[in-house]
């Protein structure tokens, strides 16, 4: 707004008043705008009834937070042991846990399963362990692999029976070639055999060559029979018998011949079953003549022994 200049001309004064009037109109317009804005705010303020309701709600909230809620908290803090017991009993009854009898039954079943499992497992371990155990010498067991392999001291059973180990066959085979040898009679004359009266008479005398208990080192085998001094020309057969306590049993035979130009007076290879220690060995001579030929014999053999 312009200030009036008292020393000015009339026109200056009028112009100044006019300017100031324009300024008032502008200020009035601005004021009206401010009033409108204030009214927009005051229009949303609740009336007295609404304010009364709000005030009541606030009072209720203050009452709850100041009195009601603390009282309820205090009541909750006043729980007796009986109340706790009642609540727990109710919960347990609803839960319906297993009884002691039922639990004992479960333990019994579980223990039985554990025992059975241990038994089965122990059995399997025993079987596996047996694979690595060396069986006793000449064991007849035939359950696990080690039974079939055998013991280093095994020898084939005499008399022979099925069920010998691999080591028994190997050891017996070794001693068949390298076992301690013997001759019988030892440092003594050969023993005479006499044939029966008729040709190929098989009722002639069975003559003892090796007495019972004479070969007492171990089980043995006979490999050769030495035949000498065939008394006349002819063919002869010598049957070999063994007696280990049950009487004479035929275990092998061999033949020889004497002609006008030669006599087979020489060791002859024979093959017989292995014989138990202390077995008696005898022979019977027969020939193709009626002249009761004679000859002399002795044996060569070996023992089967680890020691």
Q: Can you offer a commentary on this structure?
A:
The chain is α+β, with helices and mostly antiparallel strands. It has four domains: 1-41; 103-130; 133-178, no CATH class; 183-304, Jelly Rolls (Sandwich), CATH 2.60.120. The chain contains six helices and nine strands, in the order ααααααβββββββββ. It has helices at 10-42, 48-76, 81-95, 100-132, 145-149, 166-178; strands spanning 181-184, 191-194, 207-210, 219-228, 234-243, 249-258, 267-269, 280-287, 294-304. The strands form two sheets. Strands 1, 2, 4, 7 and 9 form a five-stranded antiparallel beta sheet that branches. A hairpin with a 5-residue loop joins strand 5 (234-243) and strand 6 (249-258). The longest helix has 33 residues, at 10-42. The protein is rod-shaped. The N and C termini lie far apart (149 Å).
The total domain count is 4
Distance between the termini: 149 Å
Average pLDDT over all residues: 84
Helix count from the secondary structure assignment: 6
Query: Helices and strands, in N-to-C order?
Result: HHHHHHEEEEEEEEE
CATH topology of the largest domain: Jelly Rolls
The strand count comes to: 9
Principal-axes shape call: rod-shaped
Poorly predicted runs of 5 or more residues:
none
- Name of the CATH class of the largest domain: Mainly Beta
């Amino acid at each position: 707004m312009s200030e009036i200049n008292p020393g000015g001309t009339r026109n200056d004064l009028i112009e100044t008043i006019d300017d100031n009037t324009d300024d008032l109109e502008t200020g009035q317009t601005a004021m009206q705008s401010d009033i409108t804005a204030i009214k927009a705010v005051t229009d949303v303020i609740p009336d007295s009834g609404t304010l009364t309701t709000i005030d009541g709600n606030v009072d209720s909230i203050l009452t709850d937070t100041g009195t009601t809620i603390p009282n309820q908290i205090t009541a909750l803090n006043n729980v007796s042991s009986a109340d706790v017991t009642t609540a727990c009993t109710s919960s347990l009854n609803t839960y319906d846990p297993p009884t002691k009898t039922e639990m004992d039954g479960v333990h019994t079943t579980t223990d039985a399963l554990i025992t059975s499992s241990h038994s089965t497992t122990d059995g399997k371990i025993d079987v596996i362990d047996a694979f690595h155990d060396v069986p006793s010498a000449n064991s007849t067991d035939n359950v696990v692999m080690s039974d079939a392999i055998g013991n280093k001291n095994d020898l084939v059973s005499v008399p022979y029976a099925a069920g010998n180990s691999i080591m028994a066959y190997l050891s017996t085979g070794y001693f068949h070639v390298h076992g301690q040898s013997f001759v019988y009679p030892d440092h003594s004359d050969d023993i005479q055999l006499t044939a029966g009266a008729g040709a190929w008479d098989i009722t002639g005398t069975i003559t003892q060559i090796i007495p019972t208990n004479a070969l007492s080192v171990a089980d043995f085998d006979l490999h050769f029979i030495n035949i000498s001094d065939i008394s006349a020309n002819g063919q002869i057969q010598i049957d070999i018998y063994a007696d280990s306590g049950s009487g004479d049993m035929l275990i092998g035979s061999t033949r020889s011949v004497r002609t006008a130009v030669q006599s087979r007076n020489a060791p002859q290879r024979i093959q017989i079953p292995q014989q138990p220690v202390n077995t008696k060995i005898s022979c019977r001579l027969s020939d193709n003549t009626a002249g009761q030929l004679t000859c002399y014999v002795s044996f060569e053999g070996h023992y089967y022994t680890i020691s």
